[in-house]
Amino acid sequence: MVKTGVLDWVKGDDGVFRRQWTRAEIRKTSARRYQLYVDNGTGELVARGSAVTSVDKAKSQSLVMPLTLAERCDLYKQAFPTWVAPWIDHNRINGMWMIGADYRNKSKLYGAYPNGYLKRVESMVPDLMSGNVLHLFAGSLPPGDYIRVDAMRDDQRDPDVQCDAQALPAHWTGRFDLIFADPPYSKEDATEYGHPMPHRYTVIKECARVLKPGGWLIWLDTQWPMHAKVTLPLVGQIGLVRSTQHRVRLISMFERTAAAAP
Question: If DSSP codes are grouped into helix, strand and coil, which group holds residue 203?
């Protein structure tokens, strides 16, 4: 069970997190998704706005709903109570992580994930960690309950799928709930990795194609990459500072809409 300070979330046998309601009734039916609130006077669930599953006035003990951005920030605070948690500003997640000069990351690859980075991000997206997770530019990331993609294979890199992130497999369309991407930040960085600098926007369009509606792209970079707001609107940005003499990076978070990819 995940407690957000607002409602309890229970993870089912299928890996899906569900909010627990009692005497819940959807008063409005539509194919689109809804933001929902509970009428404390009646205990009924009332649909408003836009963003979960169409239900025809069905009474249910549970209803699948996405975590709100505020609840994701609450989850981070619970996982890391001594650190400043991200906050919501203008309907987006904002924050600054001082991750520190921790050299326990044994990867010899230039620009590998900072130690602790994935744990911090994953604490905010437990509902998306269902096994349909993709790591692009995976480098020396060890095997796990995800698919690792990298353009190179050598003594440091052994991806599950070796391919160009700018041209992911065609049959992956609409497959993933969550994508992590940590591309080379410059042509010089790409040279360190041994392959040409990828075109950021081309990679992001591929991410939009292979994400499910409601899926997230977590993009680690030194810049805010170009993206199509219709398909991948920005839902959060967190600055990442490792230590002195290190580049400041930016974690950009995008959520896939149901709009057709351009």
Answer: helix
